[in-house]
Q: What sequence folds into this?
């Protein structure tokens, strides 16, 4: 029979878990930096290829083309941008249905222009450095990749006509995981965590509303990443419980939940197969 605790003990345990999670320092957040630097380098390469395809061949012309497209992509470069991003892995339903399933992952690391990659990588740095330290490298990578892929799957099914790229689905996944972490430890926060949760709802709502007013923003990927991030955060966000010798142990670490992690990956694959089947049936009509 599971032991029950009075409210005071539950609150005390939650506070201890929250403080331990915040002050347990894994090694520096090198994985976040690797993802950010790798994504920036990949964007630099694709921007260089777009400039070349648009007719720029000297270093000066290439830099000018990249600068001209830094905020808004020029009409003359739209076709070149689409061609290059599609070549290197953008979400394109027709190509995915032809068997290029790696396109469920590749879009997470591709971006349109300097503004797009800059905003996403800034948000990833701000959130990732903090979350990687409390989650650890493997849990952080699991949540980032799985939520990014689920965001792509959501876009694949609900926005089949769009060719899309970007890490924002995975970043929304991290926001969802942090929201679950706050919710799990709400008793450790002022006023039961309500102000923190309301602030997160406001931030999420503001970011999602951008897609209602700015064209070419893939809110389906955002929502897919957010929902899956909340679920993965509930399963894998740090939760410390006392052991018989009164030390604290994280019961959500991957060594304790490896089977759930495998089921998460398998579930993501099944979700992709279901989306492929339904989309294939839709295309065949």
A:
């Amino acid at each position: 029979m599971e032991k029950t605790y009075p409210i005071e003990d539950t609150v005390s345990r939650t506070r201890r878990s929250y403080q331990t999670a915040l002050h347990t320092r894994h090694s520096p957040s090198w994985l976040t930096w690797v993802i950010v630097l790798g994504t920036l380098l990949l964007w630099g390469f694709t921007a260089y290829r777009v400039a070349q395809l648009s007719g720029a061949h000297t270093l000066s012309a290439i830099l000018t083309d990249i600068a001209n497209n830094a905020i808004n992509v020029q009409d003359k470069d739209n076709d070149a941008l689409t061609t290059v991003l599609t070549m290197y892995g953008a979400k394109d339903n027709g190509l995915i249905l032809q068997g290029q399933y790696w396109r469920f992952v590749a879009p997470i690391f591709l971006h349109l222009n300097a503004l797009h990659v800059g905003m996403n990588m800034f948000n990833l740095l701000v959130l990732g450095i903090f979350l990687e330290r409390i989650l650890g490298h493997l849990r952080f990578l699991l949540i980032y990749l799985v939520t990014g892929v689920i965001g792509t799957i959501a876009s694949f099914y609900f926005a089949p006509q769009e060719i899309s790229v970007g890490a924002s689905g995975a970043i929304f996944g991290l926001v969802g995981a942090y929201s679950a972490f706050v919710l799990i430890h709400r008793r450790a926060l002022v006023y039961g965590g309500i102000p923190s949760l309301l602030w997160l709802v406001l931030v999420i709502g503001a970011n999602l509303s951008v897609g209602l007013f700015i064209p070419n923003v893939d809110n389906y990927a955002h929502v897919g990443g957010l929902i899956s991030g909340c679920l993965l955060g509930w399963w894998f966000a740090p939760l410390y419980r006392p052991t018989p010798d009164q030390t604290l142990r994280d019961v959500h670490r991957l060594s304790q939940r490896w089977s759930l992690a495998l089921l998460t990956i398998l579930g993501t694959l099944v979700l992709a197969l279901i989306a492929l089947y339904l989309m294939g049936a839709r295309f065949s009509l």
